[in-house]
Amino acid sequence: MSQTAIPLEFERYLQNQISVGDAPDMNEMIFAHIPGLDPSQSINRGNGLPDISLWVHQQDIDQVGKLGENALAYSVVIPGTVAEFTFNAIYLRDKNVPSSCGMAVHKAEETKENGMASTKSLVQAYDGAAKIAGITVDASTWQIDYQARLKGIEEDHRLACLDNYGHTAFVDGFDVSQQADPKYKVTPGVVYVGGLRGVLTCEVLQIITTKPNGLYVDVVRQGTALSMWENKVTIAVSETELTDYVDGNGDQHYVAKLAGVNADGSVVDWRIKGGLAEHEAGSDPHEQYLKKTQKASEQEAVSGAVDNKFSTPKTVKAFVKQFGFGGYLNDVSRLQGSLNDMTDSGLYALQSSECSDLPPSEHYGFNLLVMARASTYITQLAFPISYPLDVFYIRNMIVGEWQEWDLIISEKHLLTRLYQGDSSETGWRIEPDGHIEMWGKLSNLNVGGDSTFQVTFPTAFPSKVLEAGWGLISNNTGKNITCYVNDVTNNGMNLVSDKDQGETHYAGGFWFARGY
User: How many independent structural domains does the chain possess?
Assistant: First the structure.
């Protein structure tokens, strides 16, 4: 934290300079180290420069420029060749007037290190500073102009308020009433004019002798380089309509109509109301959003009774819930009859016992049918009961002809298409735990010595075979026969028999394999 002040000594110096026809000349910056200095305490304006024994560095001013009409910026660049020093106070003075002190700054300790260049700037502000000192050069020609950035931020904020409130929005107060003629009272209030938020903190009594007439609110943002900027509110009276304008100092004023005063002294309210309360009271405060009456209710979404309303996530959930997503199936929505006759897009609940032309599976029923249609191309998806949605059957109708059902299994997000065999003695199925079981029969086998029979699985295992085996249907020889498998892959395996002697004819054998 730091403190700044213009000492009383500067006022005496300034008066003397003006009296002899000279301009003030702050031409030197002094750095001092004051033991025990508390930078949080205000500076005593009665003090001037500290004792010379406390000075640690002094240097002529390198640049001076104006920041508006009421502030001057003084800067020095301390070369890296200057020896190290520590300071906690900075002063401006006219070195030609030893006792002069134009500005004092108390701050936390800072060290200018060896080999390091440093730039220091002080801004001295008083009414008419630039004109009195004869400074015409703008500081922006040689300094970073932080005012430009701050003004840019303020302008962005003003434009945001302008977008939200429009040019004029009286939020509260500013009631105008006639008092004892010719006085009119304006109550305190809040208003947005041109994007600036104006606050009238006290009642205003306005004298109006000429009628008819008008009252206006004038808002302007003003401040100095060292002060807090604020929006200043003025109540203006004019017989002619007032509008936004720029004054002689270049400040932008924004004007709003407040009230009219008729010839008989009565008051006409000209205020344009705004703010949150006025916004919420509007019949349609958010035109960009759907009205409640434009949104379908849950009952309307489920029944499909209306076609001119919009869905919300809640009504979509209610719609799909009746088909088994996120809830139980609705009995009245069940599909009956042949799936071959279903050609309309949509979601259908079904029971295997009530429908025909289902996928060729004896191991589980189905509870959901999804239909999608594009011209003559139709797709059906049937989802098994008690099984994840990444396992389902699919078939297409192309130019009036239904194709065969295919089973789709998602294996690590990869869709693997499996063909369903149609032999009762050779086939496969998906078990409830997700594993795949396959089996088959071989007929009329001649087994003798080491015999090998090659088997191709009815469909490939997507990942891996876990177990496999086989055996002969009958053995009437009384001889020992060993049956085992080898060369097992995802596509098939070899069935091997090991008989101790001779060749024997067998009716056949069975094999099985299990994996995923």
Answer: 4
